[in-house]
Amino acid sequence: MPDEVVKTKSTAESGNKSNTDQKLKPCCACPETKRPRDECIIERGEENCKELIEAHKECMRSLGFKI
């Protein structure tokens, strides 16, 4: 029975969004594109990593971040 109360409270507090969506920060979003982008910039320079930079921006936009 306590589980039902917690679920109801969680649903009421979060509205239509899940708790994960509300807590997602830009620094933690899109790790699958962020790491390769960062490594490329460090090793090859920003000017040589345009495709990886754009892929990360697209990923961030798909999650609702305004980039």
Automatic annotation (TrEMBL):
<comment type="subunit">
    <text>Interacts with COA1. Interacts with the chaperone CHCHD4; this is important for correct folding and the formation of disulfide bonds that stabilize the structure.</text>
</comment>
<feature type="compositionally biased region" description="Polar residues">
    <location>
        <begin position="8"/>
        <end position="21"/>
    </location>
</feature>
<keyword id="KW-0496">Mitochondrion</keyword>
<feature type="region of interest" description="Disordered">
    <location>
        <begin position="1"/>
        <end position="23"/>
    </location>
</feature>
<comment type="similarity">
    <text>Belongs to the COX17 family.</text>
</comment>
<comment type="function">
    <text>Copper metallochaperone essential for the assembly of the mitochondrial respiratory chain complex IV (CIV), also known as cytochrome c oxidase. Binds two copper ions and delivers them to the metallochaperone SCO1 which transports the copper ions to the Cu(A) site on the cytochrome c oxidase subunit II (MT-CO2/COX2).</text>
</comment>
<keyword id="KW-0186">Copper</keyword>
<keyword id="KW-0007">Acetylation</keyword>
<feature type="binding site">
    <location>
        <position position="28"/>
    </location>
    <ligand>
        <name>Cu cation</name>
    </ligand>
</feature>
<dbReference type="GO" id="GO:0005507">
    <property type="term" value="F:copper ion binding"/>
</dbReference>
<feature type="binding site">
    <location>
        <position position="27"/>
    </location>
    <ligand>
        <name>Cu cation</name>
    </ligand>
</feature>
<dbReference type="GO" id="GO:0016531">
    <property type="term" value="F:copper chaperone activity"/>
</dbReference>
<keyword id="KW-0479">Metal-binding</keyword>
<protein>
    <recommendedName>
        <fullName>Cytochrome c oxidase copper chaperone</fullName>
    </recommendedName>
</protein>
<dbReference type="InterPro" id="IPR007745">
    <property type="entry name" value="Cyt_c_oxidase_Cu-chaperone"/>
</dbReference>
<dbReference type="InterPro" id="IPR009069">
    <property type="entry name" value="Cys_alpha_HP_mot_SF"/>
</dbReference>
<keyword id="KW-0143">Chaperone</keyword>
<keyword id="KW-0963">Cytoplasm</keyword>
<dbReference type="Pfam" id="PF05051">
    <property type="entry name" value="COX17"/>
</dbReference>
<dbReference type="GO" id="GO:0005758">
    <property type="term" value="C:mitochondrial intermembrane space"/>
</dbReference>
<dbReference type="GO" id="GO:0033617">
    <property type="term" value="P:mitochondrial respiratory chain complex IV assembly"/>
</dbReference>
<keyword id="KW-1015">Disulfide bond</keyword>
